[in-house]
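Example 5.3 — Tubulin nucleotide-binding domain-like protein
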Amino acid sequence: MHEIVTLQFGQQANHIGTHYWNTQESYFTYAGQEDSPVDHDNSFRPGIGADGTETYSPRTLIYDLKGAFGTLRRENALYELQQGEQPRGGWDGSTMSLRLPPIAPSRYQQALDQGIEPPQLTTDTVRFWSDYNHLFYHPRSIVQLSEYELNSSLMPFERWSTGEELFNNLDREHDLLDRDLRPCLEECDQLQALQIFTGLDDAWGGFTARYLERIADELGKGCRWVLGSQDGRRTSRERHVLQAANTAQSLFEMNATTSMQIPMSTLPSSLPSYVQLDPASRWHTSALQAAAFESLTLPTRLRDADTGHTTFDELETTLSNDGKRGVAAVKLTAESPDRLRNESLANGHHDDRMANGLTNGTTDNEDEHSDTSVNFFPELVPRSNTGRTLGRREHIFSSAESSRGHWRDVEDLSHANDDTRDRRLANHQTRTSYHQTQLLFPTLSSYPKIFRFASRPEKLAMKASVSASTLVADRIRQLEQNARGMIGLDEREALCDGLVTMAEEYEEGWSDDEDNEDE
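Solution (predicted structure tokens):
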């Protein structure tokens, strides 16, 4: 097996994780059905439930603050704690329990428990990520950090250093790797990767950076992918400055301990007409992020090489330039599967524009914003009156594309991979890999109706692409410039020098003149 262990840190990450795990659960097949193309053993651990029956639960650790779990409890219908929770310390005197009023389960959760058709969810009825969760988690997967409370105004969990300090204190007291992570790793036969969902622009960035540092110290190098969420909403200047400083520290500190970081805005600067979401709803924004990451990494969970199976390590080989480029940008395109197939049959081929500009190593910024893709990378510079982004033309060094549905004929897909491999060997052109499966993305009852197509399909064709390009370098350089005025003097030199070094990896052996010569 090639197991994937997931770590989830904070509210946005756990909303993403809930959509992700609900989707994984939907791939299970049962007696009398065809075998699922997804290998569940990669992401789920076998176990024995409280009644002695065999169970499957996600290979995940879920960290969040006090009050963030809603109605989710460590003990559930499948798993009971072997021992009751005991207070730590030597106190043997009398105690008095203080209990807050219990949170009433949502109507959606009540319907799931009763096995009946659940009501339609809305932004008003979703209070917590647990309100639309479909799965039972193992008790060890639930880790509440009671030192901070969700949405507290007295002790806000917002500064990078706050998360760093919290991890250091907890790890000193409990050794979090031994207590939480090591049991998960010991259940794996051949660990494929750690995938981490976290925030980059708040205190969770500091918590995650120190957690990954401990992992690297204990386990050495490994395949570790970080989906780092950034708040894309407009905010006050003071908060924007704080978020930018947090993001700069997160990207720099995690660069040495991760193999790939994928920053994803909660609200992309430009959305195609078929995407409609509420920017204030984590349920909405996380659904779009989860669809992109789940589709991008789907090949790492497939059973058969004939359906496009690959591994995280193989994706890294395409993207990272021997480990030197550890930050990448993600795009997502969605389409009605029937319309996609009909267009393919009518035309006899697919429009090259469907490749999101990833086939020739360069993109025209004016066309980039007129296509049907969602670009999750934060916008760097203002736009002119014509809508064109100001700045240099983007050059793509490497990219990987994962599509679900009939985007390409099998023969075209094979030729595309052969062609890019031959060009790379011949003249060091863009590294590109393509993977395709006919397993469509399910829009479950727990998934918000953010994709609006006239046919209202229950499943969607999707194409997710990840690329290392000069756009990443521009973003890192912008963060470095901002950090000079926001970070303390003691940390500024190492941080800014480190960010400059990271950006330079996306410019080595290339200049704007080369693209001009090609044209």
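Remark. Residues 81-91, 350-370, 381-390 have pLDDT under 50 and may be disordered.
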